[in-house]
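Treating backbone geometry as a discrete language has practical consequences that deserve illustration. The sequence in question and its structure tokens are set out directly beneath this paragraph.
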Amino acid sequence: MMTQHGAAIAQVEDEKYPEFDAITADFVYARLRRCSEDEPTGYSPQALDTIAERFQAHAAPAATASSISSTAPKSAPPTQPRR
């Protein structure tokens, strides 16, 4: 249903909530909530690399993003802006 309506499932990285890694819209709504006060940026360099790899996989065409679950539609996203 989320894909049908182009609604994104929030990908919340939090110990309290289950994480869904499903692409259901032409954008990703990600909330990174596992920050560490001991890290100046909130995340270690290794954690930031992992996050960057995940976002790059999300940005890749569905045919090449085999490392993630994708429920994105097979057609291209609309070219008109949302209203």
The beta strands are 11-13, 30-32. The first strand starts at residue 11 and ends at 13. Residues 10 and 17 are 11 Å apart (CA to CA). Residues 63-73 have pLDDT under 50 and may be disordered.
